[in-house]
């Protein structure tokens, strides 16, 4: 097995290990969100993402909080907006 192939497999296995976890470390959150450490530190310092710091030490995140943060500010498709508009219009005609 080549070194690149080995590193890819190792990365895949390490990602698989935290996929099922509910609580993620800072490093795991970086991989999960696919962002830089400076970006994530900025989000935590601005309190844009909920985090936990037991005993004033390392930073941890609930995966559900990270999911919620990623899914904020939804940009709907034109089709979705048209369907929503049609539903509202047909609801007012009754």
Q: What distinguishing features does this structure have?
A:
mainly alpha, 6% strand, 5 helices, 94 residues
Please, could you describe this protein's structure?
This protein has 5 helices and 2 strands, in the order αβααβαα. It is mainly alpha-helical and 94 residues long. The chain has a two-stranded antiparallel sheet. The longest helix has 17 residues, at 3-19. The termini are far apart. The relative contact order is 0.10. The mean pLDDT is 83.
Shape: elongated
Tell me the strand order in the biggest sheet: 1-2
Class derived from helix and strand content = mainly alpha
Poorly predicted tracts of residues: none
Contiguous helical run count:
5
Number of strands: 2
| Helix coverage percent | 55-70%
Mean pLDDT: 83
Query: What proportion strand?
Result: 5-15%
Write down the secondary-structure element order: HEHHEHH
Gap from first CA to last CA? 67 Å
Computed over alpha carbons, the radius of gyration is: 20 Å
Q: How many strands, which pairing sense, and closed or not: the largest β-sheet?
A: 2 strands, antiparallel
Outline the fold blueprint.
Layout: H1 3-19, E1 23-25, H2 26-33, H3 37-45, E2 60-62, H4 63-70, H5 78-93
Antiparallel strand pairs: 1-2
């Amino acid at each position: 097995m080549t070194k690149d192939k080995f590193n890819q497999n190792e990365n895949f296995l390490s990602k698989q290990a935290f996929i099922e976890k509910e609580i993620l470390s800072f490093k795991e959150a970086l991989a999960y969100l696919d962002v830089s450490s400076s970006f994530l530190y900025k989000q935590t310092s601005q309190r844009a993402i909920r985090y936990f710091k037991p005993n004033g030490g390392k930073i941890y995140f609930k995966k559900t909080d990270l999911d919620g943060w990623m899914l904020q500010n939804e940009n709907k498709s034109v089709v979705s907006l048209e369907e929503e508009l049609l539903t509202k219009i047909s609801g007012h005609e009754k």
